[in-house]
């Protein structure tokens, strides 16, 4: 069974951004690209004769081919290929992205907590999964367009019916912090874009509810396989009924997350203070505790951004503040961790959340790096960053790499020579190209914590040779012609050591002033090399 659910606490927000969500665009399904690894000595045709790919591309320096198939046929094509004894493996052509992802949701500009907790960097490795279910045990959840595609049928324990629609707004905003769709030009970007939401209504229109309804809601969510339970609620009294419900949920494999409360007090708040629950406090953009957040090192497990934009019942993005807001933030991070492969247990997710925290504050990238790597056979993704196509002297090469369980190191090779190793993002290397001139193959290798390796290559032209320049002088005119394998960027005429004329090109006739003691022409190639020639 997959791991289970989380919870949070709330201070009402009043600042509205007034954003009108545009309709979500529907894109046509693009072809799926599969990488087909071939056993040594196997010809591509022998392995592919049973399917009809749109395109087939042999990968140089690797016993593999890249094929495109209609997206709807990818699973069937994978099964067919794996049945061929000549095929070693089949995997998607994974895409690596820049270490920090910035979605286009209109409310994202106000989501300061995403970068603070490195969620935007963790998104390069995972943005959640429909296989992860998060129960929002609250005032219900309304089916806003940004949430509806991932919402499951739920239950209302206040009115004892199957309609868990929100009539307060608190639960809907909590769900938005957790799982609002990302990069869809609507509302905000939730932490776990693809996680599913199970709405469980235990609080009424006024925002309050009985411990008995909350306990029933916890058991209901656990019975329906929720991986994480989010409880953005709580009270000042301990309860055996709640303790038993939490024990039942954790026994079913769920993770329970709850709000520490908003009294600015060290007094325990329940169910957050139950030891099996992850208790969450709220911090501001500087990382300091909000004055209203409850605290206590003996019972508060994590802190998280305490003010997060979210859509209200009208679909307008408003500030949502309190430990009720910090809790779904942690829940969303737990969902990201739960979506990794191999699937972690709830205990492993809890441990990774706590061990990966920075000064007690949840950290998504740190949490991913603390998940166990046993059974991890997925290779990381790696791509080149800013790299010139023509280089000279010392060239800086940057890279981005991502892995669900963490990248151990990234290495740069030029030909077969190791240029450097970097273990901390952003990955960057200084490559001394001199005195070489010619085409050079660069390779980036990323190694994840389990030792899986991925590589990508790029060809770069290295030019450390100055251009050749020919001069012809006739009277007061000097004609200069420059040549270079990289192309000529410009020519300059120097009279008495000073530049008096420039030309963007390889051929130019310059007029020389009468008053001169020396005349020179300087030519630059497109790599930046230059040469000075004295006019005869």
TrEMBL record:
Origin species: Paractinoplanes rishiriensis
Biological process (GO), any one: proteolysis
Molecular-function GO terms, alphabetical: serine-type endopeptidase activity
Domain of life assignment: Bacteria
Entry-linked InterPro entries: Ig-like_fold, Peptidase_S8/S53_dom, Peptidase_S8/S53_dom_sf, Peptidase_S8_Ser-AS, Peptidase_S8_subtilisin-like, Peptidase_S8_subtilisin-rel
PANTHER family linked: CEREVISIN-RELATED, PEPTIDASE S8
Boundaries of every Peptidase S8/S53 domain copy: 131-359
Family that this chain belongs to: Belongs to the peptidase S8 family.
Signal peptide: 1-27
PROSITE patterns: SUBTILASE (PS51892), SUBTILASE_SER (PS00138)
Protein name as annotated: Peptidase S8/S53 domain-containing protein
Keyword match Signal: yes
Catalytic residues as annotated in Swiss-Prot or TrEMBL: 138, 170, 324
